[in-house]
Amino acid sequence: MKYLVDVNGERITVELEGAHATVDGTRHEVLLSPVPGTPVRLVRIGEQVHRVVARRGQGRGHWQLDVDGTRVDAEALDERMRAIKDLTAAATASSGPAPLVAPMPGLVVRIAVAVGDMVTAGQGLVMIEAMKMENELRTAAPGVVIAVRVTAGQAVDKGALLVELGPLPE
């Protein structure tokens, strides 16, 4: 299986075939071994052994990795998903930040922004309670709040428009 992996802004091609991985054209013998009772995995690449703890990040293919004590954010997608994501990103890049929509049905607990607020990428905009858990919904890109379409205490369905964002003024 072939993956395109973005690590700290650098794209790496990884092909996995049984006990071998080809990384940017170089073939390596690899072995992944769990450490029982812990989230730790030992990854052997050739003669080198690395201690890795992997946690799922937000979004498909996003991972937060602790590799030998160093934190690394990575996104690993197969060729098809990478092509779709790259095409989608190219199409939406010029249209400004995407609106914030509810990823699940729930109850709006708190709204952290108002119309006219400038927001940064990753900033929490709305807190929704779903299945007895609070989920902070964040913006993916910087922008200006154009409209807030919900109020605290309001029940929302999956896909409901919560906050509209526009491009930052130049």
Detailed description of the structure:
The protein has 170 residues and is mainly beta. The protein folds into two domains: 2-82, 2-Layer Sandwich (Glycoprotein, Type 4 Pilin), CATH 3.30.700.30; 100-166, OB fold (Dihydrolipoamide Acetyltransferase, E2P) (Beta Barrel). Helices cover 9% and strands 55% of the residues. It is built from one helix and 16 strands. It has one helix spanning 79-93; strands at 2-7, 10-17, 20-23, 26-34, 40-45, 48-56, 62-67, 70-78, 100-101, 106-111, 118-119, 124-130, 133-138, 143-148, 155-156, 161-166. The strands form three sheets. An eight-stranded antiparallel barrel has the order 1-2-3-4-5-6-7-8. A four-stranded antiparallel β-sheet has the order 9-16-14-11, with no helix packed on it. A four-stranded antiparallel β-sheet has the order 13-12-10-15, with no helix packed on it. The protein is elongated and about 55 Å long.
